[in-house]
């Protein structure tokens, strides 16, 4: 039956040869494109009978794309990228989104066979991005499944699973647009549900799929265990870091100097002063332990350096009367400033909480 069909196509092509130059080439390419998926052997025979010297650039690009597609669909290993690169060069400049996507897709397939991992991954992603714009959901599902096989080849199971999810979603979209009420599998897309889908979809492609699936499950379990260990380690390190920060803060000379103000008499003749370096160190320490500066700036980015210094003293429980002279202000002026910081800059008008209590709560 196949031989008879091929004979009929040969007769049709012979008759087409009587038409103006190029017509028989276009007819042959169109017929091969129609048959490439349902009857690839006949399509291949038609392509073999098309003369290369009769083709223009566009026809040659279509011819090269179809030849590459035949080899890929028949699982014939690709040994060269010369043909597909000519097709890519032409369709990127002159083709629509679907043609560009197909060109990148088959280029990625060739590169995968040639062990060009990075280039293949880039072109698979480009093909998927363009395919998403075409609404050809059957084609989208096809290239996502092929990309999943590529990722599995190199042990990238997380990426392979993501490609299977995209293929599954495309298949559901195809069912919706075609009025097909059947579902492929359960609509639940939990991890193990998708793994079951991965098994069903890949069984036809690889006789060793069960071994791959078991390896995939082991990898997932191993990653879960590693993730739990890392989470525990992160928590432990976070606690140690906070403890270290607190120790550095408590043992800091500048913090000790600030706390001396609590015992200082308001009328003491011994005046304390703070250099710019000490002010900076105090704010840096309070930011490291409490995140004081960033939290206040998040509420109002217009807080001045002097406003932050006032809040830093209040965070340590120092009363205005004890540090007004350090700010070079009278107690009354400093008290009014604290009130403005609270009501006008931090907008704490409706609360009875003092500014000191507020900064300590941060």
From TrEMBL:
Keywords: Membrane, Transmembrane, Transmembrane helix
Membrane-spanning parts: 184-203
Entries under SUPFAM superfamilies matching the protein: TPR-like (SSF48452)
InterPro entries associated with the record: TPR-like_helical_dom_sf
Protein name as catalogued: Tetratricopeptide repeat protein
Organism: Bacteroides faecis
Lineage: Bacteria, Pseudomonadati, Bacteroidota, Bacteroidia, Bacteroidales
């Amino acid at each position: 039956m196949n031989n008879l069909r091929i004979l009929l196509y040969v007769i049709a092509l012979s008759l087409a040869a009587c038409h103006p130059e190029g017509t028989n080439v276009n007819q042959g390419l169109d017929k091969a494109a129609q048959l490439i998926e349902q009857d690839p052997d006949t399509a291949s025979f038609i392509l073999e009978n098309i003369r290369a010297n009769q083709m223009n650039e566009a026809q040659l690009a279509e011819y090269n794309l179809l030849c590459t597609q035949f080899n890929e669909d028949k699982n014939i290993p690709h040994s060269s990228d010369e043909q597909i690169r000519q097709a890519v060069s032409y369709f990127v400049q002159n083709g629509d989104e679907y043609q560009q996507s197909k060109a990148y897709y088959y280029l990625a397939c060739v590169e995968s066979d040639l062990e060009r991992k990075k280039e293949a991954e880039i072109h698979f992603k480009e093909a998927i991005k363009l395919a998403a714009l075409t609404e050809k959901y059957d084609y989208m599902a096809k290239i996502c499944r092929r990309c999943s096989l590529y990722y599995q080849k190199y042990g990238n199971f997380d990426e392979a699973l993501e490609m299977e999810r995209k293929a599954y979603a495309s298949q559901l979209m195809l069912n919706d647009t075609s009025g097909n009420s059947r579902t492929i599998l359960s609509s639940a897309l939990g991890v193990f549900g998708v793994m079951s889908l991965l098994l069903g979809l890949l069984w036809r492609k690889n006789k060793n799929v069960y071994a791959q699936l078991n390896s995939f499950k082991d990898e997932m379990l191993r990653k879960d265990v590693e993730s739990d260990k890392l989470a525990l380690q992160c928590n432990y390190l976070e606690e140690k870091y906070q403890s270290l920060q607190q120790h550095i803060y408590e043992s800091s000379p500048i913090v000790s100097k600030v706390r001396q103000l609590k015992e200082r008499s308001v009328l003491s003749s011994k005046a304390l002063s703070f250099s710019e370096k000490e002010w900076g160190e105090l704010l840096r320490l309070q930011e490291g332990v409490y995140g004081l500066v960033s939290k206040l700036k998040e509420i109002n980015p217009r807080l001045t350096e002097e406003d932050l210094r006032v809040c830093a003293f209040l965070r340590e429980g120092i009363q205005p009367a004890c540090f007004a002279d350090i700010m070079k202000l009278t107690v009354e002026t400093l008290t009014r400033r604290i009130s403005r910081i609270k009501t006008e800059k931090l907008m704490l008008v409706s609360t009875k909480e003092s500014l000191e209590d507020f900064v300590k709560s941060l």
